[in-house]
Amino acid sequence: MEYSEKVQQHFLNPRNVGEIPNADGIGEVGNPQCGDIMKIYLKIDNDVITDVKFKTFGCGAAIASSSMATELIKGKTVEEAWHLTNKAVAEALDGLPAVKMHCSVLAEEAIHKAINDYRVKKGLEPWEDKFSQGGHDHHHHEHEIE
Amino acid sequence: MEEKRLVYMDHAATTYVKPEVLEAMLPYFTENFGNPSSIYTFARKSKRAIEDARDKVAKALNANTDEIFFTGGGSEADNWAIKGVALANREKGNHIITTKIEHHAVLHTCEYLEKRGFEVTYLDVDENGVVDLEQLKNAITDKTILISIMFANNEIGTIQPIAEIGKIARERGVLFHTDAVQAVGHIKIDVKEMNIDLLSLAAHKFYGPKGVGALYIRKGVKIDNLIHGGGQERRRRAGTENLPGIVGLGKAIELATQDIEGHNAKLITLRDRLLNGIMDKIPHTKLNGHPVHRLPGNINVSFRFIEGESLLLLLDQFGIAASTGSACSSGSLDPSHVLLAIGLPHEIAHGSLRLSLGDKNTEEDVDYVLSVLPNIVQRLRDMSPLYEDFLKGEK
Question: Residue B227's domain is classified under what CATH number?
Fold first, then answer.
């Protein structure tokens, strides 16, 4: 199993690591049993993601996916960020090994959770999330999610 | 980044080939290449070289020469021992006893036999990875035909009480196989004294070549063949012999067993220096495996709050080659079955690191690892939401 140059770069020099105090939205997914936890913090002004940070417990692909996903949503509107797919994260990393695709799913899921956390805090209805349907378990994502 | 050295600490995975071993092998690629099954002079030289290697293996184990059979490695030897005994003794019984911490070459072979009507008991181990002898005694039934228990564990380094297991098996009339792939060359083995009926070994774990191993089969043990074809290995294992490999195995086992105590003394000093340094410098670290009865070069530790593959990738950036029992390195999502069997929770098992030292490692290597590892662990902890939660809980 080999990681692309991009995955290695993002793993070795992850962007946006850390926490945001008083974040507008926080999303945490995964569990320690599975060996992956991803936590995303969002700062949102006028519906635009002005800052994003992450903390991840996981493998090289999980850390690289977190780093890339945060880069991809920075400066985007909340709605644009909502539509970021795991596939886009994996493609931006020049691909992930098949057994590691679930790491990109985790990133998409964490962003959705953080956005809905923001919406709920603002008194808005949470958007319908495909991950919340049917007791989703990210480890069962053997196939790419569009 | 600090000065990059290259430090190989994954000898449990494989070792380099010693120059003396390579030198012994080389003529058998180029000059003495005759097929040992032929009858001319070329062939006789090859045949003699194989028998010389067989003598060396037998001597290292205190076995008889005609009890040693060469194989394509440790996995083949394990497969042959277990499937061969199971099939040859089917009328006597269909029950096999093994442990939960065996190598996959043993576990997957047992699972294969389970699908074909055999019953397998997988013994628990304690928190140090040691088999419970009472549980073993109680597991033996009149249908038990084989006990297969590894000599030393490849991940956590724990050494089993092999002589006691052998005694129990012999008293109860059950055959005893041990996967000694990690033990040969590192622990003194006497198959007679230890009542071992079958023993697997692999050359590349003790500075020999890859792709060659051996199975010791005590004279009189009923066992079917695994590989069918020609009449090589006294009609027990078909296929033209891996001549240079077998010569290399012979030389390597001779070198490895010349002075096991002297070799271990050096390794243990280095290992303890490394282990003590890790425990001193890195909080929230647990040693896995038996504190005393463990392979001399093995360290297996779990660092809380981090994941093992990330650790390996960062160590690699500093030129350090090591191993982990974390799931993410293997493609499976569960951490090592060995770490789970000794009772580690998943989240701690994920953060494991195995450093296995060998005869080229030096004090400088150990000090280098100690200068790099704590920073890497801290870097990953600083990135970990589990560590963040832990720190918040402490406040």
Answer: 3.40.640.10
